[in-house]
């Protein structure tokens, strides 16, 4: 009987070596399970530090999550750090490719910064609870009126509490090798609060992670922090042009850094 228990233990390294599909599911399952375990450990730490829901808890969450990249074989190269050296509140916008974005986000997350996320995330077990404790603002993407009222409240909170908010303006995950058209919520938020926008671009994950093809190798992600875009003096009439300007600078940067990563590492074969 003891020998039978050893068979799965011997099979795992063999499958890790021979099956890319097994590696894909193994890494995905490990990532989800480990993040839930980390959240379970972090929940009491946040409660002890802040007594409940507080954006300052993001410091603890950031510290707890930053090592996860090593387990998945990921490396981050960050450029443009100087653009985050901005005082006061601002809105960060970035492209959104998968749940792995959380690792890049935690790599560079400024102090007093939290996120805007879909409402469904609050129900994700221990991860949902730690998101709530970190002050994440939840929106119902299916109800435009609710999303608008949440954004209006978020603008007031940004100014009253001097916090920064991270938004994914594509609105959903996208791994199609380009950016999806931006939704306007982040830009209404920045204009209402009269705070700058700081665009951040993640290079394409296609050189190491392909969801449909079940590929998940080690790889490098380049994060480029772009110069801030001011919104002072803008009104709701300027939101569309602000969105277009942000999209164009981010798309240009995305294509440029994604090409450089592919040339350095080569495309993922499948």
Structure description:
The chain is an alpha/beta fold and 270 residues long. The chain contains 9 helices and 9 strands. The chain has a 7-stranded mixed sheet with strand order 1-9-6-2-5-3-4, with helices on both faces. A hairpin with a 4-residue loop joins β7 and β8. α7 packs parallel to α8. The protein is globular and about 70 Å long. The protein starts with a helix and ends in a 5-residue tail after the last helix. The model has no long low-confidence stretch (mean pLDDT 90).
| Sheet of most strands | 7 strands, mixed
Uncertain regions: pLDDT < 50 for 5+ in a row?
none
How are strands sequenced across the largest beta sheet?
Answer: 1-9-6-2-5-3-4
How many DSSP H or I helices? 9
Indicate the overall shape: globular
Could you spell the SSE succession in H and E letters?
HHHHEEHEHEHEHEEEEH
Secondary structure class reads: alpha/beta
Query: How many beta-strand runs?
Result: 9
**How much helicity do the residues have?**
40-55%
What labels describe this entry?
single chain, 270 residues, 9 strands, alpha/beta, 9 helices, two-stranded antiparallel ribbon
Secondary structure blueprint with pairings:
Elements: H1 2-18, H2 20-50, H3 57-65, H4 68-72, E1 74-79, E2 91-94, H5 101-108, E3 113-118, H6 125-133, E4 137-139, H7 144-161, E5 164-167, H8 185-193, E6 197-202, E7 209-210, E8 215-216, E9 219-225, H9 239-265
Parallel strand pairs: 1-9, 2-5, 2-6, 3-4, 3-5
Antiparallel strand pairs: 6-9, 7-8
Helix pairs in contact: 1-2, 2-3, 2-6, 7-8
């Amino acid at each position: 009987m003891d020998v039978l228990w050893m068979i799965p233990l011997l099979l795992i390294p063999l499958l890790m070596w021979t099956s890319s599909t097994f590696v894909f599911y193994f890494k995905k399952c490990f990532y989800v399970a480990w993040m839930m375990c980390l959240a379970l450990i972090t929940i009491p730490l946040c409660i002890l530090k802040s007594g409940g829901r507080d954006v300052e808890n993001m410091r603890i969450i950031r510290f707890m999550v930053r090592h996860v990249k090593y387990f998945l074989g990921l490396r981050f190269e960050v450029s443009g750090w100087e653009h985050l050296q901005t005082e006061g509140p601002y809105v960060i916008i970035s492209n959104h490719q998968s749940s792995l974005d959380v690792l890049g986000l935690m790599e560079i997350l400024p102090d007093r910064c939290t996120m805007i996320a879909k409402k469904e995330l609050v129900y994700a077990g221990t991860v949902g609870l730690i998101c709530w404790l970190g002050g994440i603002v939840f929106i119902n993407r299916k109800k435009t009126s609710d999303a608008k009222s949440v954004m209006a409240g978020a603008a007031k909170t940004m100014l009253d509490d001097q916090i920064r908010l991270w938004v994914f303006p594509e609105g959903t995950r996208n791994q199609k090798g380009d950016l999806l058209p931006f939704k306007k919520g982040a830009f209404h938020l920045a204009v209402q609060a009269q705070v700058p926008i700081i665009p951040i671009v993640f290079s394409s994950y296609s050189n190491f992670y392909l969801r449909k093809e079940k590929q998940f190798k080690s790889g490098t992600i380049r994060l480029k922090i772009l110069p801030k875009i001011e919104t002072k003096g803008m009104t709701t009439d300027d939101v569309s042009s602000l969105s277009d300007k942000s999209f164009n600078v981010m798309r240009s940067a995305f294509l440029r850094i994604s090409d450089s990563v592919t040339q350095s590492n080569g495309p993922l074969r499948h």
